[in-house]
Structures are given as structure tokens and as C-alpha cells.
């Protein structure tokens, strides 16, 4: 034992020479800078233990560092040192039983050939290290892997390298998904063999003792008869005349490790188990969602980009409805970007998300996606509410031009909406809830009271906004239903348009709000896997529908669109037709306004309908 000698800075080569009876060597808490020469010990003991610990100045394990120590079983306890890297062939010439590298805080790199030339290890402990990857060579013999608190180890080597693994204690639950898939594949490939084995095993256990299966005649049968009632088949063929060959060939038994309870195979165990927020699946889970999300995000991006382009390039005056529509289109465009980001990462990580989960959910990509979706969702709901109130105000005070909403009023209103939406989207980045909780990067963390209040605030505000939208459209419908104002066919048209607007808002908000509120109170009614269906089918409904309902299907937008196309040399005849209709309607309104003291009932109806068309 060489312990607590901080002034010991160097051990000369050959200091440990020809020690055939040495079983245990411990060098701990010293000032040694260079790895000591241990290659001339030549211990003849059946099992040798080397302990190097708390040697903080020792930074490297060189090549062939342990060759010549012992030709039998070797346990290396190399913990709490200053190791930063382990060189190629570092463990060459050893028969490793256990390799303990835990608590080497600065250990970032193990050469891919560090275990080349070695047998084993059976147990590998790399917990509390800074390793970013494991070597791909030499992992085949590992039966126990301990990698707790190894936060830099975000990816695992190919799973087929862990051919003997029985127990894994890891840092991230997603990595256990990899071993769960491996275990499932292995179980499926051997399922028929094991089922057949179990039946034969159990039936054999109940057979009379005088029934001959297969017997090793060299075995002392009188000795065995005293044990046969307790262990009809012992695991060691030297202690039982019966062999597994009675039931299966050796090739059929590959993959099973049996003890006395040989009717059950050893199963690979892995902790920590994946939780309800991160099940063992790809980002989108279902295959049909993987296809559908591309259609939806392209529709949202293309539709809203078109609306933005047409409105911004239009030579007509920027009115309040146009200004609000630009804000709505931008918000829904951001929602399309969120869906595009999720779809792209899902396509890249499909089938191997467990190896990318940590980088994605803890990285800037998920935070960006989460910011986009919360910002877009809140700005869209806010703008929809403002648009609806503006329409109600325009219709209610259609004849009072002095009460008309001007652009100078709309700008500060929308500026407040932008500030609110940005603030709500930034809070999870500052620790109020979190975008890292789930793979789809929504703020689902409700562990603290503040996070729970944050989620409830968003949901309540969205519900209030929906109620306001419904109330305004009901008042609008009551206003335009007056037979003195609008003809019956126009009344039906307005009712249908408002019904569609309210239905799309309800379809988007109701399912999300219902299940989210129940989850916020920690009574989830739906799993994360099923919530992804809501994410793709209901969550982006408004982002896809809004550009069509509020812009593309209106006459004003079609006029602006064809005028823009005419500038590019396309659709000139349609553009000219819309231009003539516009000037004709403008001239007619001017004549009506100059020949009467006030607007007629027909003019009022046109104003009401035009407010809905904007």
C-alpha cells in the first residue's frame, strides 16, 4: 500500500520487479505525474487487484501499461485520478475481470483500440466521467456496464458490440430504449426456441426418474441419485448425468445463460427505464404522422408565404385589415417552420432516435423549435382575436367614420401582442417549464408550481380568446341577419363563412386545451404518443386554414395576387378584369355618396359584407 504520499512524485522503472506472490497493489493519493512501470511484476496469483486512486497529476494511461503484471484474472480499479485519455493497446496482454474507471472527471477519450490485445473485461464502470464515446473494439465480453452520471456520453456504439451484456446502468433513459429494442429483436429471434424449451423443460421435470433422456455414463450415478430430486438437471454437466443435449443442440442454446432455474433465460436489464414523457419511439411515433406532417407543414409555409408576399408587394394602401393579416400570416408561417424542423429531425433520426435524443432535446435545435411553436401559437391566437374584434367594431360602427380603427391604433395593439408572445415563448428558456421534457419540444414540464401556473395561464388565455372570437362573430351574425340590410342569399353566405371560421378555431383549440388542462393538473388523459396525433392533426389547423379563410379566398387578395402576377408577365387578362371591377365599384360608391344625405340600405349591406371579406 502506497497511500497519502503527496510528496512522492516519481516511481522509477523496475521498482516493482519479480513479485510472484503479489495479490494486491494500491497506489493512492500521491503526487505521481507519470504512470508507473508495472510491467515487471510477473505475479503468479490466480487473481490480481491493482488500485490507482486520487492521483490527480497522472493524466495518461500509455500503451502496454499493464502487460506482464499477471497472466490470470486481473481487476483494475483506476478511479478518481487525473486521467484525460487512454492510449491504444493500453490494456494489451491482460485478462480483465473488472475495469473500473469511475470518477475520472477529466477522462474524455478512450482510444478505439485501447482494449485490443486484452481479454474482457466482464465489468466496465465509466460512471462520472467526461467520456463522449466508447471504443467499438473490446466490448463483446462486457456483462455489466455502469455509466451513471456520464452526461457527455450521448451516443452508444453499435448495439451488436454488446453481445454478452446482461446489465446496464446508464445516465439517460433513451439509451435503455436501444437495449430494449435489442432485447426485443433477440427475444423474437429465439422465441420459438425458448417456448419449445420451456415446455420440454417443465415436462421433463415431471417425468419419472427412471426415464432415460441422455446420460453421461462416466458420472457416478449413485452420487447423483441423492441429488436428482432437488436438481433433476444441474447447470454443470459434470454434476448431472442429464445434459441439455437431451432437449436441444448446442447451436439452439446460443443466447441463453442458465443457472439452476434453467427454465427461464437471463434477460438484459437496463436502468433508468424510459418515462411517460419519453417513450421508446421516434419523434413522431406513428408512420402515418411522418407522412402527414410534411403535407401540413408545406401547406402552412407555402400558403402563408404567398399571403405575406402578395400583401407586402401590393401597391394599394396598407389598411388595418391588411396589416393584421400580415401579422397573422407571419405567425402561422413560424408554425410551419416548427413543423418543418420537427419533420426534418424525425426523418434524420428515424429508427435510431435513442442515439440522438439527448443532443436534440438538450440542444439549441429543440429550444428553437419550442420557441417558434409557442411564439407562433400565441401571436396567431392574439392576432385572430384582434382581427375578429376589428371586424365587429367595423360593422357595429360602420356609419360612424370618426370611430373607425386606424393604423395608428392597430400598430401599438399588435406591438403589445408581439411583446406578450415573445415573453411567453422565452420563459421556458429561463427555467419556467422547459422545452427539453419531450421530443416534440413543447413546454410540458409541470414539476414546479411556477411551471404549472405558466401552462395554465397559456391555456386559460387561449380559452378566453376563443370565447371572445365566438361572441364577436355571433354579434356580427345578428347584425347582418337584419333583412333590411342584407338579402337572404348574402345572409346565408355570411353565416357559412363565420361558421367555418369558428369551427377551425374550435377544432384547433378545444382538443389541445382539454387534454392540456387535465395534464396541467397532473391527471393526464392521454399519453405523449397519442398527443403527437393532436400535434399534427389539430394543433396546426389554424396555421393551414387561416391564409385561405382570411386572405386567399377573398376577392381583395385575388385582385392583389393577379396584379402581382401581371407584373411578372402572367395572368394579365385576369388582372385587367379585377382592375376594371375595382374602379367601377369605386366610381359607383362615389356617385351614391354625393347624391344622398346618407348611405342607403344596400350600401350598408355592401359595407358589412366587405368587412367580412377583408
UniProtKB/TrEMBL annotation:
Q: What is its main location?
A: membrane
- Identify the Pfam families for this entry: 7tm_1
Cellular localization per UniProt: Cell membrane
Q: What the protein does?
A: Receptor for lutropin-choriogonadotropic hormone. The activity of this receptor is mediated by G proteins which activate adenylate cyclase.
PROSITE patterns in the cross-refs? G_PROTEIN_RECEP_F1_1, G_PROTEIN_RECEP_F1_2
User: Which residue spans traverse the membrane?
Assistant: 291-312, 324-345, 369-389, 410-433, 453-478, 499-521, 533-553
Q: Which residues form the G-protein coupled receptors family 1 profile domain?
A: 303-550
Q: Which GO terms describe its molecular function?
A: G protein-coupled peptide receptor activity; luteinizing hormone receptor activity
Its keywords, alphabetically, are:
Cell membrane, Disulfide bond, G-protein coupled receptor, Leucine-rich repeat, Membrane, Phosphoprotein, Receptor, Repeat, Transducer, Transmembrane, Transmembrane helix
> Hey, which family's this protein in?
Belongs to the G-protein coupled receptor 1 family. FSH/LSH/TSH subfamily.
Protein name according to UniProt = Lutropin-choriogonadotropic hormone receptor
PANTHER family recorded for this chain?
GLYCOPROTEIN HORMONE RECEPTOR, LUTROPIN-CHORIOGONADOTROPIC HORMONE RECEPTOR
Claim: Lipid biosynthesis is one of the keywords in the record? no
Q: Tell me the Gene Ontology biological-process terms attached to this UniProt entry.
A: adenylate cyclase-activating G protein-coupled receptor signaling pathway; hormone-mediated signaling pathway; male gonad development; ovarian follicle development; ovulation cycle process; phospholipase C-activating G protein-coupled receptor signaling pathway
The annotated topology with respect to the bilayer is: Multi-pass membrane protein
GO CC list: plasma membrane
Amino acid at each position: 500500500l502506497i497511500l497519502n504520499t503527496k510528496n512522492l512524485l516519481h516511481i522509477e522503472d523496475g521498482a516493482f520487479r519479480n513479485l510472484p506472490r503479489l495479490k494486491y497493489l494500491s497506489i493512492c493519493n500521491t503526487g505521481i505525474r507519470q504512470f508507473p512501470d508495472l510491467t515487471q511484476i510477473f505475479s503468479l496469483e490466480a487473481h490480481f487487484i491493482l488500485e490507482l486512486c486520487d492521483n490527480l497529476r497522472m493524466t495518461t494511461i500509455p500503451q502496454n501499461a499493464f502487460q506482464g503484471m499477471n497472466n490470470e484474472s486481473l481487476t483494475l480499479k483506476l478511479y478518481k485520478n487525473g486521467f484525460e485519455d487512454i492510449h491504444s493497446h493500453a490494456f494489451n496482454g491482460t485478462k480483465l475481470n473488472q475495469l473500473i474507471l469511475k470518477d475520472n472527471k477529466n477522462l474524455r477519450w478512450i482510444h478505439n483500440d485501447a482494449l485490443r490485445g486484452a481479454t474482457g473485461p466482464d465489468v466496465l464502470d465509466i460512471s462520472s466521467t467526461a467520456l463522449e464515446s466508447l471504443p467499438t473494439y473490446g466490448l463483446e465480453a462486457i456483462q455489466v456496464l455502469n455509466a451513471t452520471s456520464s452526461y457527455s456520453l450521448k451516443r452508444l456504439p453499435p448495439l451488436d458490440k454488446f453481445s454478452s451484456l446482461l446489465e446496464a446502468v446508464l445516465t439517460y433513459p433513451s439509451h435503455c430504449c436501444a437495449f430494449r429494442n435489442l432485447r426485443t429483436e433477440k427475444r423474437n429471434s429465439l422465441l420459438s426456441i425458448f417456448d419449445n424449451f420451456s415446455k420440454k423443460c417443465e415436462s421433463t421435470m415431471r417425468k419419472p426418474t427412471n426415464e432415460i433422456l441422455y446420460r453421461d455414463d462416466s458420472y457416478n450415478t449413485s452420487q447423483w441419485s441423492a441429488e436428482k430430486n432437488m436438481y433433476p438437471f444441474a447447470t454443470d454437466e459434470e454434476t448431472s448425468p442429464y445434459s441439455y443435449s437431451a432437449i436441444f443442440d448446442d447451436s439452439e442454446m446460443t443466447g441463453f445463460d442458465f443457472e439452476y432455474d434453467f427454465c427461464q433465460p437471463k434477460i438484459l436489464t437496463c436502468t433508468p427505464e424510459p418515462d411517460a414523457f419519453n417513450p421508446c419511439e421516434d419523434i413522431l411515433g406513428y408512420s402515418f404522422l411522418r407522412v402527414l406532417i410534411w403535407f401540413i407543414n408545406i401547406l402552412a409555409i407555402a400558403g402563408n408565404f404567398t399571403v405575406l408576399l402578395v400583401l407586402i408587394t401590393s401597391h394599394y394602401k396598407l389598411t388595418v385589415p391588411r396589416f393584421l393579416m400580415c401579422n397573422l400570416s407571419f405567425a402561422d408561417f413560424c408554425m410551419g417552420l416548427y413543423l418543418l424542423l420537427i419533420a426534418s429531425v424525425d426523418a434524420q433520426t428515424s429508427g435510431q432516435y435513442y442515439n440522438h435524443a439527448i443532443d436534440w432535446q438538450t440542444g439549441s435545435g429543440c429550444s428553437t423549435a419550442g420557441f417558434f411553436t409557442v411564439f407562433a401559437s400565441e401571436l396567431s391566437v392574439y392576432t385572430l382575436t384582434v382581427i375578429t374584434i376589428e371586424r365587429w367594431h367595423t360593422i357595429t360602427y360602420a356609419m360612424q367614420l370618426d370611430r373607425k380603427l386606424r393604423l395608428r391604433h392597430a400598430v401599438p395593439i399588435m406591438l403589445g401582442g408581439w411583446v406578450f408572445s415573445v415573453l411567453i415563448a422565452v420563459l421556458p428558456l429561463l427555467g419556467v417549464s422547459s422545452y427539453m421534457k419531450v421530443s416534440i419540444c413543447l413546454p410540458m414540464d409541470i414539476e414546479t408550481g411556477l411551471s404549472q401556473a405558466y401552462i395554465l395561464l397559456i391555456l386559460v388565455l387561449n380559452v378566453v380568446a376563443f370565447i371572445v372570437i365566438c361572441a364577436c362573430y355571433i354579434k356580427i351574425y345578428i347584425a347582418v341577419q337584419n333583412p333590411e340590410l342584407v338579402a337572404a342569399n348574402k345572409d346565408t353566405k355570411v353565416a357559412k363563412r363565420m361558421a367555418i371560421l369558428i369551427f377551425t378555431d374550435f377544432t384547433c383549440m378545444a382538443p389541445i386545451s382539454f387534454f392540456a388542462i387535465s395534464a396541467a393538473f397532473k391527471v393526464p388523459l392521454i399519453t405523449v404518443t397519442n398527443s403527437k396525433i393532436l400535434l399534427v392533426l389539430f394543433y396546426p389547423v389554424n396555421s393551414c386554414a387561416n391564409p385561405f379563410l382570411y386572405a386567399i379566398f377573398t376577392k381583395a387578395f385575388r385582385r392583389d395576387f393577379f396584379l402581382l402576377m401581371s407584373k411578372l408577365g402572367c395572368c394579365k387578362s385576369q388582372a385587367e378584369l379585377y382592375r376594371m371591377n375595382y374602379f367601377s365599384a369605386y366610381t359607383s360608391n362615389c356617385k351614391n355618396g354625393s347624391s344622398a344625405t346618407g348611405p342607403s340600405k344596400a350600401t350598408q349591406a355592401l359595407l358589412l359584407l366587405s368587412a367580412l371579406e377583408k
